[in-house]
Amino acid sequence: MSRIDRRALLLSCGSAVIAAPVAAAAFAVEPLHRDRDPSFDLLALIKAHETTYEAFGKAIQAMDGNNRDHDKASRAEEKALLAVCAYSAISEGDRRTKAQYLLKIAARGELDLAEQMQALLHSALPIE
Prior knowledge:
Number of helices: 7
Structural class: mainly alpha
Helix content: over 70%
Number of strands: 0
Strand content: under 5%
Largest sheet: none
Shape: elongated
């Protein structure tokens, strides 16, 4: 019966010990630089929401504004936020940016409409 110790085992499989990490590194999928950055489309949707949110805040604070102005600004802000929710984030950068932005909105308690949740869930489904 032959006796195999740790040293003999390492010497006999030395190439596997070296090859395995090299092969793993070669097959590891690192996102392309462009995939780590958010798309211009998503950034434009976020900017549009920020703009309409600011306009909604101004409409509320306006002393001479009427309910019609508030309602119009509110609908524009909801529509812009719905567009962000509905955006299908495909790249890593889009997913990260969209999630961070929506988490910020949710922390303010403003991501609560059923339409927003439905759009968000539909945006996560693969495009058929």
